[in-house]
Design brief:
CATH superfamily of the largest domain: HAD superfamily/HAD-like
Helix content: 25-40%
Number of helices: 9
CATH architecture of the largest domain: 3-Layer(aba) Sandwich
Number of domains: 2
Structural class: alpha/beta
Number of strands: 5
Strand order of the largest sheet: 2-1-3-4-5
CATH class of the largest domain: Alpha Beta
Shape: globular
């Protein structure tokens, strides 16, 4: 893939922190459905449409806000474990990448950005999701829930990913799809490029420095994107 002919030669960033769910894989609706199923299996009624606006936050925060449950409590652990199992078995096989996700990952790698996946998911799920979007090469540099004490929108995951990248905040960009990505990045001193494909509109994605429909939309507009500065 040759994008060099249509992009300036002065990259504004050295490192890219990447979200997966909703950004590279069309999975936000599936996560909401899996949580709904898990709650139902434990006698609690929370329809997917009630859960959907919270997808992108950590599961601990979702449990607390929806059901006033601590994720370390017995019931909280059972529901959380059930959600993961349901998602992996029932929904993961149906998932597709977002538009242009594989090409976007390929471009990032070929352009020699330092790319670190920044997600609150567990390692086995991270691997499975990255396989869907052609991002297997990024697994080794991914941060997971094991790398942070607090989940998004707390900045811990992004702070850990930034440290792993070896870059400075002003030379690093976050790519995400939820208001929680933007908030976490801001609290870590990072700018965010947002995608609408996660299900949020522009009003909810305020605070990002640019918004695109999906990865292909950004790839098609690299010349005018925040990735590059004007030649001096």
């Amino acid at each position: 893939m040759d994008h060099t002919r249509r992009t300036p030669r002065l990259p504004r960033y050295d490192a890219v922190l990447l979200d997966i769910d909703g950004t590279l894989v069309d999975s936000n609706g599936a996560h909401a459905a899996a949580w709904s199923d898990a709650f139902a299996a434990h006698g609690r009624h929370h329809p997917p449409e009630q859960i959907r606006p919270l997808i992108g936050k950590g599961g601990d925060k979702l449990l607390r806000e929806l059901a006033s449950l601590d994720n370390e409590s017995a019931e909280g652990k059972r529901i959380g474990d059930a959600c993961v199992e349901i998602f992996m078995k029932r929904y993961l096989p149906t998932l597709k990448p977002t538009v242009g996700a594989a090409a976007f990952v390929e471009w990032l790698v070929e352009s020699r950005f330092t790319v670190v996946v920044a997600t609150s998911a567990k390692e086995d799920l991270v691997k499975a999701l990255l396989t869907i979007c052609g991002g297997q090469a990024l697994v080794k540099d991914a941060t997971t829930s094991d790398d942070a004490e607090r989940s998004k929108p707390d900045p811990d995951i992004l702070v850990a990913a930034l440290k792993k990248s070896g870059s400075s905040p002003d030379r690093t960009i976050m790519i995400g799809d939820t208001p929680y990505d933007i908030e976490a990045a801001s609290r870590a001193g990072l700018a965010t490029i947002a995608f609408r494909c996660g299900g949020w509109d522009d009003a909810k994605l305020q605070g990002s420095i640019a918004i695109y429909d999906h990865p292909r939309h950004l790839l098609d507009r690299l010349d005018q994107s925040p990735f590059y500065t004007e030649k001096s």
